[in-house]
Specification:
Elements: H1 2-25, H2 29-47, E1 54-56, H3 57-75, E2 79-84, E3 93-95, H4 100-109, E4 118-127, E5 130-137, H5 153-166, E6 171-176, E7 182-189
Parallel strand pairs: 2-4
Antiparallel strand pairs: 1-3, 4-5, 5-7, 6-7
Helix pairs in contact: 1-2, 1-5, 2-3, 4-5
Length: 194
């Protein structure tokens, strides 16, 4: 877990610092200062974690919303995010920091490539003891090598972490939409703290 986090955190940090740098170059200094404060808050939350590998989905979504607010400062109105999660699955235990790198991928490789920006949609559902979390962005399609395609730090880490925690009872799938867009689907056993 520590090795995966050491790989993930610099990736997130460097992308965010590049975003701040872009705001400074555009002379959007107030937005850059807000982004630095947001980054500071996110890093504090990461460093203060209690060491637990699993957290309630509600906590993970709260962290993700803070990250999205940070990115919204950079993208202005070019970034739209919709979260559709029924209240009854907010208690599901999920790996800590599993969603942020996937949303970061959707922003960097999807929405960031669209002149007018785009949308990210996140859903989560439980069915027959399996939690499915879907992240869709309406950006350009990606080249897929197959079901075990390991493009990107976020996808590679997500796969490794889910296998480590759940073994063969988990999966990470990446699909291109029929016309456009990319969907990432995580599936793993549905568990709660109770």
């Amino acid at each position: 877990m520590d090795a995966l986090r050491r790989q993930l955190e610099p990736h997130f940090l460097f992308n965010t610092l590049n975003g701040i740098s872009g705001l400074v170059r555009e002379q959007r200094n107030d937005a850059a200062v807000e982004m630095i404060a947001g980054l500071s808050d996110l890093l504090r939350r990461v460093l203060e974690d209690g060491g637990s590998q699993l957290v309630p989905l509600a906590e993970e979504v709260s962290f993700l919303e803070s990250y999205i607010e940070l990115q919204a400062m950079r993208f202005d109105e070019r970034l739209k995010v919709t979260v559709d999660i029924p209240l009854e699955v907010y208690g599901a235990l999920v790996p800590r920091l599993i969603l942020q790198p996937l949303v970061e991928n959707a922003i960097v490789h999807g929405i960031g490539k669209l002149v007018d920006g785009g949308e990210i949609r996140m859903t989560a559902r439980e069915s027959e003891g399996v939690l499915s979390i879907c992240l869709y962005n309406d950006g350009p399609a990606v080249a897929l090598a197959g079901p075990d395609d390991r493009t990107g730090v976020g996808l590679s880490n997500a796969r490794s972490r889910l296998v480590m925690l759940y073994g063969a009872g988990s999966s990470v799938e990446l699909h291109n939409g029929e016309r456009a867009g990319v969907e990432t689907i995580l599936k793993f056993p549905y568990r709660t703290a109770v």
